[in-house]
Amino acid sequence: MEKIAVVSDTGGLQRLVRARELRSLTGHSPQYIYELMAAGKFPKPIKLAGGRDVAWLESALVEWQQDRIRARDAKAEKTAKKKAPASAN
């Protein structure tokens, strides 16, 4: 697996994730990932030198994953509140 890094705004290096790694990291096919990007629901890649290759900042993918977890948890909490019996006072 080729590892590429870039300098972040804070001066530290960030790992870049190539397209071929996305399926193992996200569980989604490349086609579905591009559909999510077109809908604004997945981070956009950055172009690498040469213009053809792209990669995603690992930090952007982690943030996307955390957003998905928060959305799942919020939905589960909302569902649990609907199923909870009303308190008799």
What is the topology?
Blueprint: E1 4-7, E2 13-18, H1 19-26, H2 30-38, E3 46-47, E4 54-57, H3 58-83
Antiparallel strand pairs: 1-2, 2-4, 3-4
Task: Please give a handful of descriptors for the protein shown.
four-stranded antiparallel beta sheet, 48% helix, 18% strand, elongated, 89 residues, alpha+beta, single chain
Structural class: alpha+beta
User: Which strand-content bin applies to the residues?
Assistant: 15-25%
**Tally the helices: what do you get?**
3
- Widest sheet: strand order? 1-2-4-3
Relative helix content: 40-55%
Detailed description of the structure:
With 89 residues, the chain is an alpha+beta fold. The chain is built from 3 helices and 4 strands, in the order ββααββα. The protein has helices at 19-26, 30-38, 58-83, and strands at residues 4-7, 13-18, 46-47, 54-57. Strands 1-2-4-3 form a 4-stranded antiparallel sheet. The radius of gyration is 18 Å and the shape is elongated. The chain starts with a strand and ends in a 6-residue tail after the last helix. The model has no long low-confidence stretch (mean pLDDT 86).
Short characterization:
The chain has helices at residues 19-26, 30-38, 58-83, and strands at 4-7, 13-18, 46-47, 54-57. It has 89 residues and is α+β, with helices and mostly antiparallel strands.
